[in-house]
Design a protein that fits this description.
The protein is of the alpha+beta class. It is built from 14 helices and 47 strands.
Length: 843
């Protein structure tokens, strides 16, 4: 009878000694117990907490008592925290089995997220928070196996660089492998790579004779006889059980059956590494094909739009917390006795990351799950706004505003100088008769009054904030008195509106013309921002199978209503309805802003239909490019539904048009027509999917040449992270030293940039205090290159740094440090094409 072996260092050494010839001639099954636990799916998170996780983990420990050689791999650190809190007895048992080598902690992420819909920074935070927990509470600090068994929306081509930057060497996945590859180097555009292992068949196999057929098919493609198998009950938990152990023993007794050994993923990859095989290389995204029904329809593609309300909330929280972190970190640096609210940020990120689980964010769970998610987002939104206010209030308190009447500080969360219309509220002590606005140089500022509070003391205004410094601010003042003349570039008539960039015309269905004044050309190839309501023949949260039917949408009036006529902004409103939806579309043209912005509100009560917004672009033979997490990819413009982050672009060598969004993920480009999927109503998981009101924003951004020349990534981020205005008191900005009355330093000036980078294709994507640290003396700064070009860049800082080291993305120092030149509150460094780089700055 074959022996049941749990691999040790000695066994691995013996395998190496036997040589590659034996390894290639004899098949061995490396059996890894596993329970794929969906955090929420056909059940709510509370059931995972109360029953699924404790039952699974308790059962695995019980089986390990019966079968001492049994091994088990478990991902998702959120589950370990649940057990630590609710069942400390089980948690103690798990730690003992981790120490003995039977229990393997894999993945390193807080949850198993979708692999293409979360932002690049969210994917990093999964590892940052997951690995922090594993080290602190489980004593596991060397997780290097990424674990993606069930993500189905697709796997972004940037994952190798994101994951390897988070300490991952290996990538175990279950769906979407290239046809001819099962073990391969998966390589990102920047050259980063990770060794990918496609699970044979799927996770949670049954231990029976079918394993040999599965392994033979896998080995025929991989050319490898060492096969790692995953078995045990999953989805709703379970893990290895008695039938699995019994099956293992029966199969091991058969001489004609391949050798079977209990193993851990770590030991399996040590075996692979010892073989010194030159594995093939694959570059590109995975798991996104054209589907069984042609270009427009296809498996999984409906999940780019399902549960649109949750997707929008996810984007909002990503934007809010990255903005709040920047200003809270800066604010902490300016405190008299510094303290950073690290626990508040960490606990809020845990909730955001848990709701990026691969059956929650894609929209493929039951309706109760999304009620829970929206309650989570409501709580986290309150926390994020409070944390943002914390940072802005501290910064504002340090500005000398004594010479400003009713000071308003405008903050820019992005790393380049920008101009936009900002909304603000200003409260007066006495109701003013009239007022006007000046900037910090005494120049009159273009503005309009949007409304007043009931008591007449608070004015809601919009004004032109010009040249706001990178990750910084500028102070304005609202002065009581007769308004000054304001020269606006906005003009309008019965069916047109003009600013310095565009002349726009419309009719009852949509925008019929956008003339680009700079390029001297028409941007549209037909009426844009029109709506299509398409029928679906399969009511599936996952799949998008169109029936070929199109349903009527009727206008409420013969012409859109101009609802806002001001020097800062003109907007008009279309109102439409179908049998089960009422839709308002708002077009907004702002003074001196090179985007045509839109807002849409949909009161949705349709079923088995999808609503799309359509934009025919005057771009011949264009290339379609879609933003991915910390990257981009060119795809075919043949009408296939594809996922994207903040933007989709269609360009040729002369000009292009980008469609920007603040919370949509499903798009198709059919020759020269860009379409955005708005909302759908599949009934298989949630009979009332997305019923109710949806509101979101999007924009058209015409530009010269391609998306790189047009700085599309920047424009999309400006839509997603608007300028922030906050009224300040009049004060000196000086603070005494702790315990004395002497000023500690000068006040801040009325215009300041804390951080910036001198490149139009490198972005500061994150600024935060070092994880686990309460002191802002150690700041983490992350950069990424957006366009695929090498460069030497200089990053300006708010103070002279004591030391700067480069780290991986989970803030561990790199063993080999690149050259970093520090001089005059700045540092200079080289950055490669498509790179993401992280620096720890000690002030």
């Amino acid at each position: 009878m074959k022996r049941i072996i749990q691999y040790s260092a000695l066994f691995i050494f013996l395998v190496i000694l036997t040589g590659q010839a034996k390894a290639e001639s004899e098949t061995t099954f490396y059996m890894v117990g596993n329970a794929h636990i969906d955090l929420a799916y056909r059940w709510r998170w509370n059931e995972t907490v109360d029953r699924v996780t404790p039952d699974t983990f308790e059962g695995v420990l019980r089986m390990m008592q019966q079968e001492p050689d049994l091994t088990y791999a478990q991902s998702q650190l959120a589950l370990y925290e649940v057990i630590q809190s609710n069942r400390p007895d089980i948690f103690t048992g798990i730690k003992e089995k981790i120490k003995s080598g039977n229990w393997s902690v894999v993945g390193g992420q807080w949850a198993e997220p979708d692999a293409i819909l979360p932002s690049g920074e969210s994917l990093i935070r999964q590892f940052l928070i997951g690995r922090e927990y594993a080290g602190k509470h489980l004593g596991v600090r060397d997780i290097d196996i990424a674990w993606v068994p069930d993500s189905f929306c697709g796997q972004a081509l940037t994952l190798p660089q994101i994951y390897s930057g988070c300490g991952m060497k290996y990538y175990v996945f279950g769906r979407g492998a290239p046809k001819d590859k099962r073990i391969f180097w998966w390589q990102s555009p920047d050259g980063s790579r990770i060794l990918a292992y496609k699970m044979p068949h799927h996770y949670n196999l049954k231990v029976n004779k079918d394993l040999k057929k599965i392994a033979d098919e896998w080995s025929a493609v991989s050319k490898c006889q060492h096969v790692m198998m995953f078995y045990g009950e999953g989805d709703h938990g379970g893990g290895p059980r008695e039938p699995d152990v019994t099956g293992f023993k029966k199969l091991s007794a058969l001489n004609e059956f391949p050798e079977m050994v209990y193993s851990t993923p770590e030991n399996y990859f040590k075996i692979l590494d010892s073989l010194n095989i030159d594995w093939p290389v694959y570059e590109g995204e995975m798991g996104i094909g054209k589907g069984e029904s042609g270009n427009v329809n296809g498996s999984w593609r409906g999940s780019y739009t399902s549960q649109a309300r949750t997707k929008k909330a996810n984007r909002d929280m990503e934007n809010l917390f990255l903005t709040a972190e920047k200003f809270a970190a800066i604010g902490s640096m300016l405190q008299r006795k510094p303290l950073f609210p690290r626990v508040d940020f960490r606990e809020s990120w845990k909730i955001i990351l848990r709701n990026q689980f691969h059956d929650i964010l894609p929209g493929t769970s039951i309706g109760d799950v999304y009620d829970d998610a929206m309650n989570d987002y409501l709580y986290v939104k309150g926390e994020g706004e409070r944390l943002l206010k914390f940072g802005l209030e501290v910064i504002g308190s340090r500005i000398d505003t004594r010479d400003h009447e009713n000071p308003i500080v405008v903050y820019n969360p992005l790393s380049w100088t920008r101009t936009d219309i900002v909304r603000a509220s200003v409260t007066f002590i006495i109701v003013p008769e009239k007022f006007y606005i000046k900037d910090n140089k005494g120049k009159n500022v273009l503005y309009q009054i949007d409304g007043w509070s009931e008591d007449g003391l608070t004015a809601y205004i919009s004004f032109l904030a010009k040249d706001i410094p990178p990750i910084g601010y500028k102070v304005y003042q609202v002065i009581e008195g007769r308004p000054r003349f304001m020269d606006s570039d906005i003009k309008w008539g019965p069916d047109f509106v003009v600013n310095k960039y565009f002349k726009i015309k419309w009719d009852e269905t949509g925008v019929r013309s956008i003339y680009d004044i700079r390029q001297r050309k028409e941007i549209l190839a037909g009426t844009a921002n029109t709506l299509r309501l398409l029928g679906e023949k399969r009511s599936s949260s996952w799949d998008l199978m169109l029936s070929g039917e199109e349903f009527p949408i009727e206008s409420e009036s013969s012409n859109p209503e101009v609802i806002d006529k001001g020097p800062a902004r003109v907007s008009l409103l279309w109102q439409d309805h179908s049998e089960g939806a009422f839709i308002t579309r708002e077009l907004i043209l702002k003074a001196q802003v090179p985007r045509i912005e839109f807002n849409m509100t949909v009161d949705w009560h349709e079923h088995d239909k999808i609503l799309k917004a359509v934009f025919p672009a005057n771009v011949d033979s264009g290339s379609a490019v879609f933003e991915q997490p910390y990257g981009y990819i060119q795809r075919e413009n043949d009408g296939t539904e594809w996922p994207a982050q903040n933007w989709v672009d269609l360009s040729n060598d002369l000009s292009g048009v980008a469609l920007l969004n603040d919370g949509k993920y499903g798009f198709d480009v059919n020759e020269n027509v860009i379409s955005m999927s708005v909302v759908r109503g599949a009934r298989d998981m949630d009979p009332r999917m997305d019923e109710g009101t949806h509101s979101f924003g999007y924009a058209l951004y015409p530009h010269e040449k391609d998306w790189r020349t047009g700085n599309v990534t920047r424009q999309a981020l400006e839509l997603n992270r608007p300028l922030i205005a906050m009224q300040e008191n009049k004060h000196s900005g000086m603070l005494p030293k702790w315990g004395s009355l002497n000023p500690v330093e000068k006040s801040l000036s009325d215009e300041y940039s804390f951080f910036s980078v001198n490149s139009d294709h490198v972005i500061i994507s994150a600024i935060k205090v070092q994880q686990g640290n309460w002191s802002p003396a150690n700041i983490v700064l992350r950069l990424y290159e957006t366009d695929g070009r090498d460069d030497t860049i200089t990053v300006k800082l708010p103070a002279q740094p004591r030391k700067i080291i480069e780290t991986n993305h989970i803030e561990e120092p790199l063993p080999e440090q690149s050259q970093i030149n520090i001089k005059d509150r700045a540092f200079t460094v080289q950055i490669g094409h498509n790179q993401i780089r992280t620096f720890l700055i000690e002030f």
